[in-house]
Sequence to fold (287 residues):
Amino acid sequence: MSTGKGALSPGTHEISIDGITQRYHVAGNGPVCLVHPGGPGMHWEYLRLPLLEASLKTVYLAPVGTEGSGFVPGGDYGMKRYAHLARAVADRLGVPRPYFMGHSHGGCVGLQLALDFPGEFGGFILYDTGATVGQELYESATAGVTEFALRHAGRPGTDDAVRSWGEEETGDKQLALERVRMMLPLYFADYWHMEPQLESWVSTVDITIDEARKYEPWDVRSELDKITDPTLIIAGEHDFIGGLRWARQMHESINGSRLVTLSRSGHFGHLEEPDAFAQAVRDFIAS
Fold:
């Protein structure tokens, strides 16, 4: 494992930022793109992008509070801290203006980065995300769960997925991971069609729990018109949590942004429509 030397060599690297261990994983070749997973608390492996590694040097971040990276003292995992740490990793890489891709919660980090450090990145890829976290997002997602239940009534696992969404979070990792895996059908346009292909992928789904983590509302919708960096927004048409409502809101407010809709995807378009997803990213970077 690297400790900072050869910062862009393939493999796993660890550096220290503000006294906190930050781990990241490098793969592929081409322009450099930092890739930030969702959650918060999700491990990076679920977001592995082999189709893009052929044309991008992907730097998969293991955000603080997950998979080998350190915990933040006092549980203060604010969006500005995540953005600060991502920017610090980019600085250590020594590459001028790398790209940044953020999925779900990672896309929120991308928006905060674009606002706090304008002009420092080559562009932002905001994937199944939105510009607010809090009660409004939760209510919108819950309405999406209700629609999912109606659309897939009678299919195996539907009732368990819907019930799991309404359960309280637990500090027990094993129980939390079981809940996440139970909810997986919610995150796909058609999980049952994909299920035979997902067996190995499901084994990569993992989480870390920091019981000290503080959850605070976050909303930058009124600031989106300040973003001037090139921005690609990708949204699955059937994504119940970071879908078209939020994507269109960002697209209308971020000047010059592009919006790509994946019509047969939920929250994981890189799995349900991998070719279309990868092509959208390649086209954006080529431009």
